[in-house]
Here is the input.
Amino acid sequence: MQLFIILIYFAVTVVIGVLSSKKSKSSDSFHGTAMGLFAIVAASTGEWLGGTSTTGVSEYGFDYGLSGAWYTISNGIGIMFLAFFFAKLYRSLNSVTVPGIIEKFFGVKARTVSSILLTLVMLAVGLSQMIAAGKLGQSLLGFPFVPTVLVFALIFIVYTLAGGMNAVASTNKMHLFVMYGGVILAIIFAVIKIGGFDAIFSGLNGSNMSPETADAIAQAKASAAAAGHAFKAPPQGEASRYLNMFTIGLPKVSSWIIASLLGACTAQAGIQPVLAAKDIPTAKKACIITAFVAAPFGLFTAFLGMSAKAMFNNGTMLYDKSGELINGKSALPTLMMNIHDNPTIGGIVGGLVLASILAAILSTVSPIILSSGTMVTKDLYQRVLKTDATDAQVLRMSRITTALSGVICAVGAIALVEASAVLDIVYAAYSLRGALFIVVLFGIYWKRASEKGACWSMVITGAVAIFWKAYYMANGSYPITNSITETYAAVIVAAITVILFSVIFPKKKIAEV
Here is the structure.
């Protein structure tokens, strides 16, 4: 039943995307132009509500409670920051890419460097989403990882190529309703299954852990010790711990907020629809609405993680499909398989919720590969390599680069599926993306900021972000102090280097904006 629902959902997605091709006959329409309010909200939301907002936040909910929702709340704060301070400026510059905006303040070389870096960031994020999709199909439907990824890749490449931004907006409208509808449906059935909210809060208390759960943990610990493996039991605490919005830690929360404040203003996939708004008021309104749509979603998925923890503690759900003791990563998929005692009802509900999770992933991957293709085409091909390209040539190159972006994400997901460093790479990429906004700020507000200063700053900041995360992965701690994560390091280095190199390499004349 779950497979049937997923196949129907995929089929509808492809049909909607293909029908959108009628509106994408020029390069401008393919990248997005004169978009309305709801279309912008739907297309932009995909950047902020991906696989991490579902399976990732539910993992935090299982381990830490509602404080895991800060992931999407932070995104909402960042989008609101964009709405009130930069949406008007960005839209007025008439550029469809963030690197195009950077050129307005620094020059074409800075546009080229930022385009390369931001494209790499987008591909890293897309790769992680493809891994999430493959793992989900593997754990819930029992399909092999590689075929699952290839099928998903084929689907989102086909409908994105067919309609471009129109396809992204049209399909994301459906994805958005399915995402919210699916998680709300899951919450309703989870509450009924467990016996009400009081039963959930009681089950969250570690002191109320059932003998069956305690035995399962002891057996898993003994098995791990016998095999010479490390064992980490699911975190426990009182119910109040799961309701505290800062259980996950203030450093983590503040880091998320800072990264979102900075990243929201340089996230090509999220900003591209805003840049394609029909006018400035629409761009600003769309950002405000997107913030309110994205922010609360994590509260729902974190609660699902908490529901899974309650079922684990009361002994009604101890093992995942592979027979391993449930942990944060397997909490949501396992909950979906145990959502109802009746197999038919459970299959239908589980299928709908699985569709909502896949909708979150699809709504992110599609704009990511489109934005990657857009930057390569507009910032490198049309701006540098072939400045006299016709519209037909630009449209053809857009489709080629978009398809290649999808292929790279799929191949990368298959190659790195067993690598434990994937999320670390993504976090480093996010840090770099946020730090680039520091460079943009200097371009806007500091008249002495030069093109060479910006280029050197972006390159060095990228190297530092990668080094900082690599050092942490190798040593379990950050250089200097653990208080300075890769986000803070990248921001600090970006600010220092753009000033330093702008002084060393001053601009020869004031560029006209």
About this structure: DSSP finds 22 helices and no strands in the chain. The chain has a mean pLDDT of 86. Residues 2-216+226-418 form a domain with the Sodium/glucose cotransporter fold (CATH 1.20.1730.10). The CA atoms of residues 40 and 273 lie 5 Å apart.
